[in-house]
Design brief:
By secondary structure, the protein is of the alpha+beta class. The protein contains 13 helices and 23 strands. Strand 13 and strand 14 form a beta hairpin.
Length: 528
């Protein structure tokens, strides 16, 4: 790759008139790609775009129009079609006054035999906690065919909440200062984040596939509400999700489809899942299960009854019947078509994570007061054979079983890509003792992980303890930020967890990396 990627970095633009937030592309197929820009005008403006080959002749291969309208917050999108598979292209928008957007670079998906396909995988990018150095490194690396963002592209909290005012670093303020509730709020938050130069650069040079997690609406969201939504003071949940999803689809190079599949030649099928707003059942709360227990014996009895009852309720959903059927059929079709890998781009961990009760008991008194109650509850849950995180697939065991059974029935080479936790994970996924797939769980871009909640506990001790109590977990890092570099070949899939040196100062340097591999046909992980 050359040309645009070697040029001077895009200068961040925001506010004012004209092209305000660079360019972006997404939703690639073998013959098309969705193009995005934003042009703020005095009135609705019809933009033109051209797509050119990336060679000395710069031949125009596609052109068309896109409307920048006040109704879409001046964001303009268009699908450029008639492109060749597996090719890099440049594109640019032009306004009627002759002004032009930055040059963008994009790539179509390949067809036929594919010897290698590389993806950069991100999640959990909280602007207030630091600089998006993971984005900067991936852009400078210039080695990827596609970027995946698995959610928490931004956070909905008001200024001074998460992070608090003391932890917010200089020059990383957000807009609006209040929590995002209405359409104007979500639009302003997107504008605030999209002003970041490293995020603009990443969008400028790679096509993206993006899916939302919870913070694009509100923390711990599900189909009927969220932990961070109060109907009495913040209006209906439907009104909030309508506003959030509308702004999301305006400001990002995404389609309106809640889930979708992307074919990477004969090498892989990538499935973008929706696990938050469409069908997810409400999360369980261990604190609620324990409420009313006056003694350890009473609390353990309550947890045991929960474990054997409500926890295993087969009606609880993560995907819903329509999406589950679509995925199951897609896995079978991908394998029957001879594709090697079936890759899930989704939000939350599928691997089973349990706390080490002895370790939690030993450190609870040293933890911040705000988390001591949660640690005690986690310790009791662990002793009762319950998992750590009820917001992940661990809180939906029947739904997870349905997905893993569909993968086994399809004889899939399943790879789950997940974000959400802010930490790095590698799992062997099993069902009834059978190897059903592997999972690469990505660390956050900036959001803090376990090291924040358990200060003074050496990260290597926490990692070893968690692995000891979680048989599917083959490796974890609980203290570093960064992104995943995932490479697919016909023989193997490799994940490099790349750790940025810092986030509180702007720098694209890495502190190190860790590599895990799975060979096609094994559904098992190995080091290196």
């Amino acid at each position: 790759m050359s040309g645009l990627a070697a040029a001077a970095p895009l200068a961040a633009t925001s506010g004012g008139r004209g092209f305000t937030h660079g360019v972006a592309s997404g939703e690639p197929t073998s013959g098309s790609v969705l193009l995005w820009t934003r042009f703020a005008g005095a009135q609705d403006t019809q933009l033109t775009y051209v797509v050119r080959e990336m060679d000395a002749n710069r031949r125009v291969v596609a052109e068309g129009t896109a409307l920048a309208s006040s109704d879409t917050d001046w964001c303009a999108k268009a699908v450029a079609s008639g492109l060749e598979p597996g090719r890099w292209y440049t594109y640019q928008f032009t306004a009627p006054d002759g002004s032009t957007s930055a040059d963008g670079r994009t790539r179509t998906l390949p067809v036929g035999d594919v010897s290698r396909f590389r993806m950069a995988v991100f999640s959990c990018s909280n602007k207030g906690f630091g600089w998006f150095n993971a984005y900067a490194h991936a852009a400078e690396a210039n080695e990827f065919d596609l970027v995946l963002h698995l959610g928490d592209y931004f956070y909905e909290y008001g200024a001074g909440t998460y992070p608090d005012a003391e932890s917010t670093i200089a020059d990383r303020e957000i807009s609006p200062a209040s929590e995002t509730l209405k359409l104007a709020d979500y639009r302003a938050r997107f504008a605030s984040y999209r002003a970041d130069p490293d995020l603009q650069r990443l969008h400028q040079i790679y096509p993206m596939v993006l899916g939302w997690d919870d913070h694009e609406t509100a923390n711990d969201s599900w189909s009927g509400g969220a932990e961070n939504h109060d109907v009495a003071t913040e209006g209906t949940w439907r009104a909030r999700t309508d506003a959030a999803t509308r702004a999301y689809r305006e400001w990002l190079p995404v389609s309106d489809e809640p889930w979708a599949a992307y074919e990477i030649g004969q090498l892989a099928t990538l499935y973008r899942l929706e696990t938050r707003l469409t069908n997810r059942s409400e999360q369980f709360d261990i604190g609620t299960v324990l409420r009313g227990g006056k003694s350890p014996d009473e609390m353990m009895a309550a947890l045991a009854a929960f474990r054997e009852g409500a926890y295993r309720d087969s009606s609880r959903e993560m995907l819903g019947q329509a999406q589950q059927d679509w995925l199951a059929n897609g896995l079978k079709r991908s394998r029957s078509d001879g594709k090697t890998w079936q890759v899930l781009a989704q939000q939350v961990l599928m691997g089973q994570v349990s706390s080490n009760a002895d370790l939690l008991d030993a450190i609870v008194d040293r933890a911040p007061a705000a988390v001591q109650g949660r640690l005690r509850a986690a310790s009791l849950a662990s002793r009762a054979g319950l998992p750590l995180n009820m917001d992940a697939w661990d809180g939906y065991p029947a739904a997870r079983e349905r997905l893993l059974v569909s993968a086994l029935n399809a004889d899939a080479n399943l790879i789950s890509l997940a974000g959400d936790t802010h930490n790095a994970w590698a799992f062997d996924l099993t069902h009834d003792g059978m190897a059903a797939g592997v999972e690469f769980g990505g660390q956050s871009v900036t959001s803090p992980g376990f090291e924040t909640y358990l200060p003074g506990l050496p990260p290597e001790m926490l990692a070893a303890s968690t692995m000891q109590s979680s048989p599917q977990l083959t490796w974890t890092d609980t203290s570093q930020r960064g992104y995943m570099a995932v490479e697919l070949t016909p023989a193997s899939a490799v994940c490099d967890w790349r750790f940025t040196q810092r986030v509180r100062k702007r720098s694209a340097r890495l502190a190190g990396s860790h590599r895990m591999t799975t060979a096609a046909g094994t559904n098992k992980l190995a080091q290196g």
